[in-house]
Amino acid sequence: MSAKARAPRTSTRPPSPPSSDELSQEFYRRMVMIRRFEERAARAYAEAKVGGYCHLNLGEEATVVGVMGALDDSDYVYTNYREHGYALARGIAPERIMAELYGRSDGVSKGWGGSMHMFDIASRFMGGYGIVGGQVPLATGTALAIEYRAGTEAVVCLMGDGTTNIGAFHESLNIAALWGLPIVYVVNNNGLGMGTTVEQSSAEPELYKRAASYRMPSARVDGNDPAAVHAAMRVALSSARAGVPYLLETMTGRMKGHSVVDPARYRSADDTARAQAGDPIAAFATRLLERDLLTDDMIAEIDREAIARASAAAAFAEASPHPDVSTLFDYTYATAVPNDSRRLPGDALFPAPPRPSAAHTEVMA
Ligand SMILES: Cc1ncc(C[n+]2csc(CCOP(=O)(O)OP(=O)(O)O)c2C)c(N)n1
Ligand SMILES: [Mg+2]
């Protein structure tokens, strides 16, 4: 419970539908789309079509669709840099996401953000942050703005397990609990912060228990089961909308390296094999086959469609123009300061001093 009693918020929007057969099929489709998109992104990176860093959601697809499927359109989403799947699940077109990876002007951030910095205000997708924990205070501030305006939206702030050891995580949870902010902190525990295990880095490795320090309700859920994540997320969201922030820990496994270029040599072959054996897509397919909600033919068709869409996204990205360099600072919000970095190559470091006027020269003489 939050320390301050407050009137429960009532949402004007209907809640997302409960888990149903159609929803399970739709979740499966979305998971496969994320998988095939990420594989295509990895290929594009290897072909040097994508610059900068590139972190994939491979192995985390069930958590991505379960969390995102529980949100209303009016809710706000903040993620870390491992974000392509969340952007897809928010309904942003794969073409715009791939174009952003390629740094092209049709990209979701007009080509200036890249893999880690995708923004789409229309879908209230607020980024995309490369600094571990950078999104947590910003998401908390958005929840404060909603509270201040007595809005009915909620904020979901996604992060990894490693982020729970950043100071801003604790400061944000503390203030959110004190002020009863409408926010769900989702900790996607994939067992690793780059190459460091949760056990090596967290004195309390059951991360959901950390919420107790802030008297915040929390839960741990099987992050490989999209229906379980979806159900847990609905509980978390209704708590947040009633003014009681929530922490949800989803247990997943990272199937590949930290980023596309990481060979993950710090990991034992057994550990990697375990993560790959826990593949949430294969497990969900088995369950849906058993319940006659999928057939082998449907699985093959869904896969074909996802591969075709990912290829179409890559072709679209390839054909999209590079952004013009003159637009480099168009979407930045920092105020100009004397030593700012808004210079392009060849620009003077400081503006030339004003020339003395004729009148001024006469007085001096
Ligand atoms: C403040 C800060 N410190 C260190 C880094 C380098 N770094 C990038 S990702 C990462 C690990 C984060 O792990 P986790 O939060 O579990 O997210 P995951 O990559 O597993 O999704 C680190 C230490 C950074 N980007 N920012
Ligand atoms: Mg992690």
Descriptive keywords:
two-stranded antiparallel sheet; alpha/beta; 365 residues; binds thiamine diphosphate; DH_E1; Rossmann fold; binds magnesium ion; Pyruvate dehydrogenase E1 component subunit alpha
Description of the structure:
By secondary structure, this protein is α/β, with parallel strands linked by helices. The protein has a single domain, classed as Rossmann fold, CATH 3.40.50. Helices cover 40% and strands 8% of the residues. It contains 12 helices and 7 strands. The protein has a 5-stranded parallel β-sheet, sandwiched between helices. Strands 4-5 form a two-stranded antiparallel sheet. A hairpin with a 2-residue loop joins strand 4 and strand 5. Helix 1 (21-46) crosses helix 11, helix 2 packs parallel to helix 8 and helix 4 (94-101) crosses helix 11 (296-319). The model is unreliable at 1-5 and 10-15 (pLDDT under 50). The protein binds thiamine diphosphate (TPP) and magnesium ion. Residues 160-162, 190, 192-193 line the site of magnesium ion (MG). Magnesium ion is lined by residues 160-162, 190, 192-193.
